[in-house]
Amino acid sequence: MRTKILFFPGGLGLAMDVEGKASKGTSLSVNLEQGQGKGAQNDDHGLASAHTIDRDSWQQVGLMLVTSYNCGWILSFSNLVMWPLGWTWGVICLIGVGLYTAYANWLLASFHFIDDRRFIRYRDLMGYVYGKSMYHITWVFQFFTLLLVNMGFILLGGKALKAINSEFSDSPLRLQYYIAITGAAYFFYSVFIPTISAMKNWLGASAVVTFTYIIFLLIVLVKDGKSNSNRDFDISGSEVSKVFNAFGAIAAIVVCNTGGLLPEIQSTLRKPAVKNMRKALYLQYTVGVLFYYGVTVMGYWAYGSMVSAYLPENFSGPKWINVLINATVFLQSIVSQHMFVAPIHEALDTKFLDLGKAMHSGENLKRLFLLRLSFFTGNTIVAAAFPFMGDFVNFLGSFSLVPLTFMFPSMIFIKVKGKTARIEKKAWHWFNIVFSFLLTIATTISAVRLIVNNIQKYHFFADA
């Protein structure tokens, strides 16, 4: 289903048209819900999107956030976060970075409306405030992040399927076969459920599957932790490697809490969009965080420094529970991965589909099929060639997701509210900009170092 919305232009050419307005010193004004009670205010700024806008409830979006961030990726965070940091710094960073991320998303949600215009894409927002260059930079960062997230999901699904096969065979098929099966499953889901709003009827089932695998997972972790009296929590490696690994862990915590696509998610919310987005965020950072932080901490408690990058590899059994957890992780990932790749689908669908016809009409269905096939074929091949799940998590959390999450919202604040804000607020946001810039450099160096080390250790299409 497509919706034509009368909002601020989202295309590149239109973003370029308004560049001068933001860059000539013209005052920009923000209103939390401007235009939401006056349906005709945005009539001069028509925007066509192939995806549904302004329809979903905050409960639906909140449930989507809770289930999507409690996907199978959390099975890696005990190794990626707690193992490099240990108990003290691990807990401090989980709480500190989590609160910082929640605040950054809360701030970004307030800029969904500026100068009576609604921004349904992150790149449109940055392009309007800072011009054409920031439009391109934001889109590259988002595109890069979401591609890597999707590759990570494909790797995750492949590992889950291989783990199931390993329970019944001493010589399971290579990982690449399961990666291909996972890519095919994601492809078919994205064709029949093409938008975020279309996920509505699947979120209930996704929630049941999510909490099923988490409950059984916690039961196994408690059982294994009680029986594992020889575990230790030593942080191994040289002082240099400990520092680099710590920055990698911080990047993983960012990935754990956000995805760099809040405006795109917010665009699906019905009025009032800002208040509803914040309600959905409250649900994520209260209910949702309890589960993915709980699994992260419990996994480290159960296995200590021997915790695996894919938690089920540490399980002591029985066989049926290993199969159940891996099967539910795979099924849940089919739904949860869809949210994180939606901005790419929306851009392609809006460009190539006929917006005057139904999305699943004859010609549009053919185009949709080809678009999704091309995307998932490419991503599946790359994921099969580079099966290093932890590296993807750290790299996407450093180079692109850190600035998208922390730097850009404060940059928007400085531009939109800088002339009227109190000096302490401006100082705070300048601190955020500088700090996140330095954090981006440090975590990116750490991620590149990890990738280089694993490239030396593994080969292309490794059966990892």
TrEMBL record:
Native organism taxonomy: Eukaryota, Viridiplantae, Streptophyta, Embryophyta, Tracheophyta
InterPro entries recorded: AA_transpt_TM
Key words of the record: Amino-acid transport, Auxin signaling pathway, Cell membrane, Membrane, Symport, Transmembrane, Transmembrane helix, Transport
A GO CC term assigned to this protein in UniProt: plasma membrane
Chief subcellular location: membrane
A single MF term (Gene Ontology): symporter activity
Homology family: Belongs to the amino acid/polyamine transporter 2 family. Amino acid/auxin permease (AAAP) (TC 2.A.18.1) subfamily.
Membrane topology: Multi-pass membrane protein
Reported function: Carrier protein involved in proton-driven auxin influx. Mediates the formation of auxin gradient from developing leaves (site of auxin biosynthesis) to tips by contributing to the loading of auxin in vascular tissues and facilitating acropetal (base to tip) auxin transport within inner tissues of the root apex, and basipetal (tip to base) auxin transport within outer tissues of the root apex. May be involved in lateral roots and nodules formation.
Protein location: Cell membrane; Endomembrane system
A single GO BP: auxin-activated signaling pathway
Domain of life: Eukaryota
Transmembrane segments: 87-114, 135-155, 175-195, 202-223, 243-262, 282-303, 323-348, 369-389, 395-416, 428-452
Span of domain Amino acid transporter transmembrane: 55-446
Protein name listed in UniProt: Amino acid transporter transmembrane domain-containing protein
